[in-house]
Amino acid sequence: MGQHYSEPRPGTKLQVIGAGLPRTGTASISRALAILLDGPVYHGGTQAFLGPEVEIKTWIQVLNQWRPEGISISRSNLDLIRERVDGFVAITDSPGSTLVRELMAIYPDAKVICTVRDVEAWERSMAAVSTKSTQWFLRFVLFPLPSLRYFVDYINALRQQWFLKFGETEPVTSSSYNQHITWLKENVPKDRLVFVDVRDGWEPLCKALDLPVPKDVPFPRINDSLAIDSFAKKHVNRGLCKTPASQGPNDPPACGDSYAACKFDQFPCDEHFSPKVTDTHHCYCILANKKAMDAYCQERGFKSGSNPWKYYYAVECHGAVSDQVCNKDCHDQGRGNGRIDKAHPNGACACDKPNPPYDTCKRS
């Protein structure tokens, strides 16, 4: 998967619907499409996990509302998908690869490009990732991390849709892959559907898009398995380091026994933040001083900031300089439009929607 969140570019037309299932070279094709089409690509996993929480929350809602063939597409789902995908030249990976029907309805002129792989190798690869993504401790470990705290709910929503679509979850078998390919051949117009193998390089992809092969630019070769393993290790470690200091003897292991062990090689705190080790050997990020807090908030359009928490990396910004700053802040949180709350003594933001507590028991 990719390592960086991509910002949409207003006015950009979606040209490619990536129909390749996970572990078929979606990271490589994403980078290749970004080069060929000269624009941002919506790689589903990267956007959901590294973007603002509205990204992953929206996909959970879309997947939970999804209905199989024979039932009309939810208008609400089309609107939600459009909100996330508009402004990108292409969408790849899950959940887009199993929402091709919806994406074709929204973007009737887009090509449908499906990355393929040896089906037995794909089955083995999917078995490995399925085992890792359903570990019982992930909800606890990832809870301190924005967006990733919803990882388990997101995976559960994907599994539910996968079962409705293919009739299986774990273990995922070649049946799902073959059903997917068959569905594409039966439902996507032939002039819009292209199958490519990333091992073949630029030529098949460029031919499908009627574009010249880039000169002196090697085709991206990104190992999906290694990229996902690296991503998982990095963010599980981040989650362990951000858990409260008051850990019991049976809780996850501490991430370091000194300030040096907490430093950026093991725990990369964001800019303006510094790593700190507690008496119980747990790392967390703090804003080093009031000046750093203010700088952090001022970069985001606020006048000052403070840290209201004892053990968590968090900062509360005050004194938004404009309603536009509040509007962006509320949108990033998935809380609708926003404006300055003039009744608040610190000039906090008022959002249209409340920030609901995270409930690990209740399910929609």
UniProtKB/TrEMBL annotation:
<dbReference type="Pfam" id="PF17784">
    <property type="entry name" value="Sulfotransfer_4"/>
</dbReference>
<protein>
    <recommendedName>
        <fullName>NAD dependent epimerase/dehydratase</fullName>
    </recommendedName>
</protein>
<dbReference type="InterPro" id="IPR040632">
    <property type="entry name" value="Sulfotransfer_4"/>
</dbReference>
<dbReference type="InterPro" id="IPR027417">
    <property type="entry name" value="P-loop_NTPase"/>
</dbReference>
